[in-house]
Amino acid sequence: MSETTTTAPPADAGLRRGAMGGAELVAQAIANIAPSAVIAFTAAAIFVTAGNGTWVSFALATVIILAVGYCISQFAKRRASAGSLYNYAAAGLGPFGAFLTGVTLVIGCFGIAAGSLSGSVIYLGTVLNQLGVPISGVWGQILLAIVLGGLAALFTMRGVRLSARVSLVLEIVSVTIITVLLIIALVHAGPAAFDPAQFALTGAAPQGVAVGMVLAILGFVGFSSADALGREARNPFKAIPRAIMWSALGVGVLYVFAAYTQVAVLGDKLGTSASPLDDIAHVVGMPGWFSPVLNLGVAASFFAVVVAPLNVIGRIVYVMGKEGVAPRMFGATHERNLTPHRALLTFAPLVVAVPVVLYLFGVDANDVLVWVDTFGTFGYMVAYAAVAIAAPIFLRRLGVKNWLLWPCTVLAVGAMAYVFYANVFPVPAFPLNIIPLLFLAIVAIAIARYVWLRKNRPAVIAAIGTTETDVLEGIG
Length: 476
Fold this sequence. Notes:
Elements: H1 22-33, H2 35-50, H3 54-76, E1 79-81, H4 84-130, H5 137-158, H6 160-189, H7 196-199, H8 206-218, H9 236-266, H10 276-283, H11 290-323, H12 341-360, H13 365-398, H14 405-422, H15 435-456, H16 458-463, E2 469-471
Antiparallel strand pairs: 1-2
């Protein structure tokens, strides 16, 4: 069947142009990272291997993420697209590279959204129980997952500006709560706040710091998500690269500060702490009402990272629908809200279904968080590596010389490959050992779709990366 005989695409009102300011773009980027949730979990896990080098693991991860961001920014300051990395890869790697990047990025966003929904369920449930509202058991978790997932879907479908502002408020509140706690902890520690062992890296083995760096890098996934709002941003060629780089740098500095403080205050107890922030609050003598506030902040951070990836999924699938790579029904926006509602109405229930089904099978909510986030991370790693490879090819075609880009590309691709490898070898215990296989199986199914399109609808392949994109004047 030829492309000309397929069903006509639905009428498309288009995305809302110029709706997003710089602060809202930064909110989208930071919300997709969920720094509060990372601080609550990751430093303790890194300390197990990195010890007094925990802050170094975060510092090295920040450098690597900035290298990835620099590669992405080469596209963002020349192309403003709703297709995110999918569109960028098309400009450097061609149709197949774009297809692979788009598919893996959707997988990444989906996994992080579904896993983080479970994180929000955990912490909101804790808050409600602390406030005397009994929420427990599988059905309580399912109820919270449905309510939170429904709210996330509602915010994203009502408008990108609304969802970004919700994310901004939630992240400001959660980061402020945690930062205040950490500052109070340092003041409470007095002279002990200066920890020579951390500056001298006492007992920190290079291998342990490197292993910790892997976990630290995972704490940044989704940092570039503002690039999916290129068609909806004001002054996108300047605002989006700034949002990507400054959000990564700002969050990296916060991570280093939080890691240093947690080690300085808790010492060796950090490695065995189930809830480091609660333990710090206890050490400094925070009042009883602070614990629910702290947990609410972490729950809000997790919720924000459900909203932000859904925004990205909606826009990538919307672009794929317009181009015929995905079903064309997705290539239309809501007449009034100007959001990719069909894609969101399809994927949001699936995001909710993943934790709900796992809860019904008796999986602990914390395990759901770890397993599903791990699945999503594989998608991000492939997408980041692909766009980093595409960047120098893209600039070479434009005749642009950039001496900094090649080192950033090598660092970015090497680090993403190392992160992928470190999550596969040595082979982890079940079920983490089958998660990479599940990821590869889904990618293989998607590639089969690409092969079918190339054979039966070559016009679709030729159109990849050509829609919903503004190109800076004078740039090809």
